[in-house]
Amino acid sequence: MSGGTLPSGLPPVSLGTWQMWGRAASRSVREALDLGYRCVDTATGYRNEQAVGAGIRASDIERDDLLIVTKFPEEDAGREHETLSRSLDLLGVEYVDLWLMHGPLDAEGSLAVWRRFVEAREAGLVRAIGVSNFRPSQVDDLVARSGVVPAVNQVAFGPWYFDPALAPHHAALGIVVQGHSPFSENDLEHPVLRTTAERHGRSVHQVLLRWHLEHGVPTVAKAVSPAHLAANLTVNDFSLTPAEVTAIDHIADGARAGAVS
What is the chain's mean pLDDT, rounded? Predict the structure, then answer.
């Protein structure tokens, strides 16, 4: 059984709202939607769902044209219904398009939460359900125990965490990999990234987003200023060469080797 589908799939770049609060968060969400973003990502743990909802309502975007993603904090296990109801109230919507388990518990704990997720989807409160920060083995265990395949696994996929086996593993199960924290979880000063950016006349942020897309992985990217918001949407305007992609793939190899030795 599938965890549901998103009618138009995830866009190449979604708006991340971690550490965005109050009026600043609402303003950034509204500006992002005005610029063309169509997926907004938040979480119960971010404590900004109300501000995100206000930004959505301030825009002219029809609800059916927008994907709203929020995440359930695993420490709230046992309070799934209450947590989702509060998220819906704060966001000011009748359903969310994608509800993610923000992180794994032990096998039994994840399974118990996941069963409540399935109930929420069957009740029409969410269109699709997924997980976040799950390792492939944890995904395999959850699917084997529940018989329900997550629609999405949102993970740190950037060069520092790159695992070439992850996307193929998930694709074989029909799971979409979505990358989070493309900027905060990577070395923006790394010479490979800086040289690649200079070669294309782009920013390192844009190169990182494009690298994700070269691997077929959409991203959640935080931005606040209108200029940065707009720049993140231009990653379809250029491509990286296979050699550049490979060079970025191997950025963390030396550090990993040093950690093992």
Answer: 94
Which of these is catalytic: 37, 46, 95, 161? 46
Residue 161 a catalytic site member: no
**3-class secondary-structure state, position 13:** strand
Helix (H) or strand (E) holding 220: strand 219-222
143-153 pLDDT per residue, tens: 999 999 999 99
Residue whose token pair is 């696994």:
153
- Interacting residues of 135 by C-beta distance below 8 A, sequence separation 6+: 104
Residue type, 135: R
The answer to whether residues 186 and 159 touch, using CB atoms and an 8 Å cutoff, is yes
pLDDT band at residue 55, thresholds of 50, 70 and 90? very high
Q: In the chain, where are the structural domains located?
A: 13-187+217-235
Q: Which residue type is seen at 117?
A: F
Structure tokens at 142: 């959850």
**CATH code given to domain 13-187+217-235:** 3.20.20.100
